Model the fold of this input.
Amino acid sequence: MFKIVRREEMSDGTVILNEIEAPLIAKKALPGQFVILKANEEGERIPLTMAETDPEKGTITIIYMVVGKSTAVFRDLEIGDGFQDVIGPLGKATHLEKVGKVICVGGGTGVAVLHPITRGLKEVGNDVTCIIGARTKDLLIIEEKMKAASHDLRVCTDDGSYGHHGFVTDVMKEILDEGETKLVVAIGPVPMMKAVSNITKEYDVETMVSLNPIMVDGTGMCGGCRVTIGGKTKFACVDGPEFDGHQVDYDELMLRLNAYREEEEKCHSDYCTIRDAK
Amino acid sequence: MAEKAAKKTKTPRVAMPEQEPQIRARNFLEVPTGYTMKMAQEEASRCLQCRKPGCVAGCPVEVDIPGFIDLIAQGDMTAAIRNLWGKNALPAVCGRVCPQESQCEGLCIVGRKGEPVAVGNLERFCADYEREHGTGELPPKADSTGKKIAVVGAGPSGLTVAGDLIVKGHDVTVYEAFHKPGGVLVYGIPEFRLPKDIVAQEVNFLERQGVKVECNAVVGRTVTIDELFEQGYDAVYVGVGAGLPRFMNLPGENYIGILSANEYLTRANLMKAYKYPEVDTPIPIGKNVVVLGAGNVAMDSARTAMRLGADSVKIVYRRSREEMPARQAEIHHAEEEGIELFLLTNPTQYRGDEKGRLTGMECLRMELGEPDDSGRRRPVAIEGSEFEMECDLCIVAVGSASNPLLTSDTPDMALNKWGNVITLGDTGKTTKKGVWAGGDIVTGAATVILAMGAGREAADSIHDFLTLGW
Done:
């Protein structure tokens, strides 16, 4: 069992942080890599990119939004409980290199994934501006951490309750207009990554995105996570999860993420009904 | 004697009872239900006890077939299972999934004039008897040698290596990337052909003998081979399987509803998605299912789809029945269960709707031309024979290539141009010192028993190395 040693709720309880004992993975994991977690015997294998690792303490941290039954089961695990299985580190690590001016754009729980990458890009000597966004102020996560990980943090909310009133892409455009930007890293909901990539393409700025398609094994065995990159099929689990944002077929990815939508919704609501009845 | 032998060849083989096709086509219970003791003894008495048995020569792990069959005939089941274990750590598996017709049974003298002795059925009976009624007493084990071996991959070849080396007194740890040991035996072969409780029991038998099994350990990622040596292992065996699904590279291949057989079967078998929503992993349920390919994996996929409630399941294959790579028995079982064969048919593209879901595929009729490199007649498209086939689920079972996850992380272990590990002769030695390999990662996708045979040879070579040197 992989024990939970810390648990936090964010975004009005819709986003959960779990710090988990996994010493072998913590020792090996690099920014950008993911793990697969399975709560119990009947559980589903869920891929999540790590938000943080502590090799000394032997722990990894994941931050996820509760969207279906599996993440609802995760949410109900308390400190001292554990995941039956955690597998990793999987996927390729982020290529961290000094290129100059970098913009890191994060939305939703993508901000958590963006955190170690932002910090890594700053550590190798880049000038990093970070833009994070949420629908409203209460849904923002790890703002302080992102501030520390970057040189300059900009916050956006769709409803104007905090920071810039509008989308992350508005702020990104302003910075791109200043010139000199060498790299954009965008991690968040697929429509956000698509919008960012469309803009950076106009500015001809290299863009990296991290994809989270449906997976089973995470080791290249099943091909469930196939994505189209530059017209070619790639497996996000072993060829990614990071890809050139200008080459990704986002529309296909969005459709494929809906493969089990009906099953997920039914399964999740049944789970909640049963749990609430208790 | 001759008269007696002639009589035996005329005695019909004792058929193993099985579930009726129309019933089993909608459940996941095992198809053949097993011999009774009486049936097993009757079948065992058909064996001629040849002095130079062809069956043993046909077995990749050289099971003493006349030996264990004679012990069944005598009713000494404890001695029979001991005899089997001497050569085979996974008899309950082999009795069920080996292609006996082209190995032991294919070389049985009784089979020349009549039906061969049912070696597979008897092996299965013997293992099942031990599991259900046995004493649980373990086979003898040599004194500890103090040598440590890491086995990478808990599939059939890795488990064979573990079983062979543990009885020779070595310390064995098996590393498995999935959350359960068994490899293709748990993720690939369906419950109705090989119940997962039986695989778990076979692994448990190894654990009771002292084999340690570490799941969730992706060697190449969680730990590297060099780190295993740093941890004090004296030898490493790589048996990671093939594990990279091939697709057809046709337009529309990423529509929802097109899955590799690896994904479909892993969902159904390892994740037990056939029990959904009792378990959390979903599996697409097709009304009209097409399976591309005609090997055993294709048959397993088709029969799984039928059990999950499909209206129709079609096997689409570009060659003819004669070239189908699946075992005859599997094709027969599939057809009995209502699966249709669309032979000499080749898909050219997939069709989907605005939601990105598969709705059908376009196919061409084929005819057989001159033999190709494989010696099989090459299928050639018939001009103007395009037609549409409706389907909402397509399972691609056209083979597996080698998965580079471990091998790309181990640069000093040489690979051939297909990414398979190069090994020396019949020892399983790789170009990296102290590392052996076997099974599908060396040969490309093959059978459970060939992987076990490779494991046996490597285990012998590892034992020689640990006692004599590289």
Remarks:
- Chain B is about 35% helix and 15% strand.
- The mean pLDDT of chain B is 93.
